[in-house]
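Sanity check

After download, print the first record. It should look like this:
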Amino acid sequence: MTGHIPVLLPDMLAALAPRDGGIYLDATLGGGGYAEAILQSAACTLWAIDRDPDAVARGASLAVRFPGRLHLIEGRFGAMLSLLPGAGVDRLDGVVFDLGVSSYQLDQPERGFSFRMDGPLDMRMGKHGPTAADLVNTLPERDLADLLFLLGEERAARRIARAIVAARAQAPIATTARLAAIIRGVLPPDRSGIDPATRSFQALRIRVNDELEEIEQALRAAVQLLAPGGRLVVVAFHSLEDRIVKRFMTEAAGRAPSPSRHDPSGILTRAQAGFRLLTPRAVRPGAAETAANPRARSARLRALERLPAERPAP
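Expected structure tokens:
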């Protein structure tokens, strides 16, 4: 099934540690690379969620190869607390997230995710809701600039927003090529070789799909479903995503910074952490992987384990 290259695949398997008889969740099925590797590594059961109906349809061929072991669900991973119990699953031995856009989505011009091929300015991971074209053609200039700055960390956000508003006054911006050309007209080529449109396209994609809010919700849901000894593994590609994951896991493992001695809350006894951080530092791809797959260059893997429940005192 895989038409893409799974990122940090050996590291993901080492962190998730699938075992025979275990029940796992691939919360971002995408191209199916992680799902296939998990199913091959252990005689386990895997549930897989994706909000993209195309990804779920592609997953059907993988399910045929692993009869009775792979179960597909179309939906948002932030809704797993309703999706999984509804399917009879209330405990998991591991959950993996491969955040962001999949290679399949990037490589399909009609999905509108990439500026490298012309297509409609869509960017929806599902098939519902406002598109990126709706945002660039309707948002006030200030709101558009804030979006590009906050979600894309784009320093030239105000100049880009001004150029977009001027361009849409001439004709609606309906394609990826036109939007990319507008941005490139504002920004000079980056010395790193990264296309000047990259950060703006990321910002629009994140906003169209409510990705950051979805990640927050999904992380909270995932740890609720983890059985003792269960593991949560997350691969993020954007600094904003990784920041959320790092903060969440650090706090879950009881490693949040101590409050100031002047803060009254500092006198309160902290609750015992129920999780162990498996990755004190994010795992990053090596030079060989990034050379073979340039899309891996920004990947960061973090992992967390639910501690076994304490035995009651005799």
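If your output differs, re-run the checksum step. Summary of this record's structure: The mean pLDDT is 88.
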